[in-house]
Amino acid sequence: MQQYFVNGKADKLVTITDKDTIKHMFQVMRLSKDDKVVLVFDDGVKHLAKVTDSAAHTFELTETLPDDVELPVQVTIASGFPKGDKLEFLAQKTTELGASALWAFPADWSVAKWDSKKLAKKTEKLTKIVQGAAEQSKRNVIPQINLFEKKADFLAQLAHFDKILVAYEESAKEGESAALARELATAEKGQKLLFIFGPEGGLSPAEIQAFEKAGAVTVGLGPRIMRTETAPLYALSAVSCLTELLK
After folding, report:
1. Residue whose C-alpha is closest to residue 31's, from 9, 16, 47
2. What count of Cα atoms within 13 Å lies in the side-chain half-sphere of residue 138?
3. How would you classify residue 8: left for phi > 0, otherwise alpha for psi between -120 and 50, otherwise beta?
4. What are the angstrom distances between the C-alpha of 89 and each of 45, 60, 130, 230, 243?
5. Whether 146 contacts 101, CB under 8 Å
6. Distance CA 70, CA 201 (A)
7. CA triple 88-71-12, angle to 5 deg
8. How far apart are CA 152 and CA 155, in angstroms?
9. Which candidate, 194, 102, 190, places its Cα nearest to that of 143?
């Protein structure tokens, strides 16, 4: 059954106003009277709804659904600006894997250089991608997108997290294998976790020092060195395994 996110609070009767949603519902999916979909509102609660008037784009909520597929911890993925369309790939895949937010920042060794105008366009594009991926994967929430123009603004946000984990290539090379499992094993439900990943060139020593000063723990992601767009997927899979499947 198709799922859609709707801005606002749930009400018995709902009128869809978003043009893209209307197009998908009534032109692509050709919904008609009494057809059913799942609608998710700002509170993340899912509702079964049926079409009451396809011309007016109205629905009646018929049932509140108990489905909650969110991770027990809130995971933000933060990446140094990568090259090309790697953020678009990450937006889709990290949403499917349960991330609550995707952030990116200008790392010291980022090749990509984006000004405020390009960042605004990129944010708009990524926002559409995560919404589509959240609907497809039946999420209860749409992940937040935040692209920082200045690294200082990113660093200022670190204090808001319960755990900060930095995927560090040197830790993997040295054979470190316990930190990630240890940190996730002690994570409590509802905690906010931040995973930081470098761009193609990795994270600089100065950045590692700044992250550790903010309380970050450097972790290895197994014995193999991963690409910048692969490592976040490994981390989210580990989070799911250790906080959902083994508890």
Report:
1. 16
2. 12
3. left
4. 27, 35, 10, 10, 24
5. yes
6. 32
7. 90
8. 5
9. 102
Q: How far apart are CA 143 and CA 133, in angstroms?
A: 10
Six token digits for residue 233: 């997927």
What residues have CB less than 8 Å from 158, skipping those under 6 apart?
164, 194, 211, 214, 215, 216
| The residue to which tokens 């054979």 are assigned | 175
The amino acid present at 187, given as its one-letter code, is A
- CA dist 125 and 147 (Å) reads 12
* Distant-in-sequence, close-in-space partners of 129: CB < 8 Å, separation ≥ 6: 88, 91, 92, 95
Own/partner pairs, 84-93, CB within 8 angstroms, 24+ separation: 86/228, 86/229, 87/122, 87/126, 88/125, 88/126, 88/129, 89/229, 90/229, 90/232, 91/126, 91/129, 91/130, 91/133, 91/143, 91/145, 92/129, 92/130, 92/132, 92/133, 93/133, 93/232, 93/233
Burial of residue 167 (number of CB atoms within 10 Å: 0-12, 13-18, 19+)? buried
Residues 116 and 160: beta-carbon distance below 8 Å: no
User: Roughly how many angstroms between the first and final C-alpha of the chain, as a whole number?
Assistant: 29
**Token output for 89:** 């790939």
Q: What is the pLDDT along the chain (247 residues), one digit of tens a residue?
A: 999 999 999 999 999 999 999 999 999 999 999 999 999 999 999 999 999 999 999 999 999 999 999 999 999 999 999 999 999 999 999 999 999 999 999 999 999 889 999 999 999 999 999 999 999 999 999 999 999 999 999 999 999 999 999 998 765 555 556 889 999 999 999 999 999 999 998 999 999 999 999 999 999 888 888 999 999 999 999 999 999 987 6
Paired tokens of 174:
């040295």
